[in-house]
Amino acid sequence: MIAANLPRIPTFEDWRAAARNMLAVLAKPEEIVWRTEGESDLFINAPTPNLKPITPAFVPRAFIETAGKAVLHNDPRRFALLYRVLWRLQQNRALLEDAADKDIVQLYALVKAVRRDEHKMHAFVRFKEVVGADGPRYIAWFEPQHHIVEETADFFVRRFTGMRWSIITPDASAHWDGKTLSFGPGGTRADVPAEDARDDDWRAYYESMFNPARLKVAAMKREMPKHYWRNMPETALIPDLIKSASTRTEDMVAATPSTPRKRAGVAHAKITPEDLSTRLEPIAGHAEAPASLEDLRRALQSCRACPLWRDATQAVPGEGVEHEPLLALVGEQPGDQEDLAGHPFVGPAGQVLNRALEAAGIDRGEIFVTNAVKHFKHEPRGKRRLHKRPVTGEVEICRWWVANELKLVRPRLVVALGATALQSLSTHRGTLEAARAQTIKTREGAPLRATVHPSYLLRLPDEDAKVEQFHRFVADLKEAKSAAERMLRAA
């Protein structure tokens, strides 16, 4: 037997160096004992070669990308699996394309689990404020299922560039001082304050978003696995919210339907092209070019350029990675839940989008999402508020906001979700279907692709058609990601 010794928490580079040594001596997968620092086994005295490969190995780019994720998994068998796939690739270069191969199925399962854990870390980290002599610092305790701290740290740098923070996990920690990102050893929950004033905000937000009529416990636990609950202040509410869901639902049904009070002069009068210059004056008064997204969001809340603000709860700005993300997705307008929450794509269409992004291998936490129109246009129908499509004039007025958002964010590629977004972003006058097949330009000259809005998939009456169109939607997102990556490499 031959030993391959690795650090306690190996990186992909650690594994790759050891794998090269194994290939140099033509070690077969079954002849290798993969051991991390501190482990002992029957083959502790097995020799460890330290050679350079005589001939270069065949390593396709797809394997490097896949192995880079899989090595972050916590399964101790991952090193042997990766080497076995690498060894077999020398004889079968198309191995990665064999979706039925047992090793390939297992490899992609590891990658999927790591990506899911990364996504959950993006969503479930909760910072606590600690005020010291040098000012406030924010500390979070998180328990990832895999070794993802270094892999996800850049996301938090981009998201919280302006604040000093630390994320402590059992195995490792990440620290940002406003200029430099560093890593250190792990810690314990005791290193982070138990309570914080923001905990009440999280609980209030979660309770306000909890819809008892749409409660599906199994689905909720899939999206928010119980493994993460103990470090999230809002999850303490879940048992009582579930217990009272049926009573609250009955109360909602029994409540007398109400129609919002009509206000004088709020009719959505038709906006003609001749009106645009006059109606745009209130927008231009904010600033000809907002200096930051924060400035833009603050100004957006006081926009009165068209009547849509009157019946909406609030304007809904874009959110996500704010500095040169790979993709920016632009939808039509906020829906009912987005209007209440103040965040884009959190309702049913947002759930469809999340599933499609995951299927396409795109982390929502690493893109920017927004809408062409910033206020929810609707009409009351009993206790419900039904979506109403914005007209051309409203889209043109709101174009000032989305154009400035994209100018500040500077995505590599913009994706229009639906015909309204395509109308806002480009001068394309063909069908949405025609635009799906090509990369065109925004009015400002940025690369643009188009696909359907996820709400379109919800409206399809035929289940087979839903499945077919969902797969096509995923394919559009994959192609957008590939196109953006090609542009990045070319740059």
Task: Describe this entry's structure for a reader.
With 491 residues, the protein is α/β, with parallel strands linked by helices. It folds into four domains: 2-120, no CATH class; 125-191, no CATH class; 197-243, no CATH class; 273-490, Uracil-DNA Glycosylase, subunit E, CATH 3.40.470.10. The chain contains 19 helices and 15 strands. The protein has helices at 12-24, 61-70, 78-89, 102-124, 149-159, 197-209, 217-223, 238-243, 245-254, 276-284, 293-300, 308-311, 336-341, 348-359, 392-409, 419-425, 432-436, 454-459, 463-490, and strands at 2-6, 32-36, 128-132, 135-141, 165-168, 172-176, 181-185, 319-320, 327-331, 368-371, 378-381, 384-387, 413-417, 440-441, 447-451. Strands 8-10-9-13-15-14 form a six-stranded mixed sheet, with helices on both faces. β11 and β12 (384-387) form a beta hairpin. The radius of gyration is 26 Å and the shape is globular. The relative contact order is 0.07.
Task: Identify the notable features of this structure and list them briefly.
six-stranded mixed β-sheet, alpha/beta, five-stranded mixed β-sheet
List segments where confidence is low: pLDDT < 50 over at least 5 consecutive residues.
Answer: 263-268
Spatial order of the strands forming the largest sheet = 8-10-9-13-15-14
Fraction of residues in H or I helices: 40-55%
Our estimate of the beta-strand percent is 5-15%
- Whole-number total of structural domains: 4
CATH topology of the largest domain: Uracil-DNA Glycosylase, subunit E
Overall body shape = globular
CATH class of the largest domain, named Alpha Beta
Q: In the CATH hierarchy, what is the superfamily of the largest domain? A: Uracil-DNA glycosylase-like domain
Number of strands: 15
C-alpha Rg (nearest Å): 26 Å
Oligomer: single chain
What structural class results from the helix and strand content? alpha/beta
Number of helices: 19
What can be said about the biggest beta sheet? 6 strands, mixed
Named at the architecture level, the CATH assignment of the largest domain is 3-Layer(aba) Sandwich
End-to-end separation: 47 Å
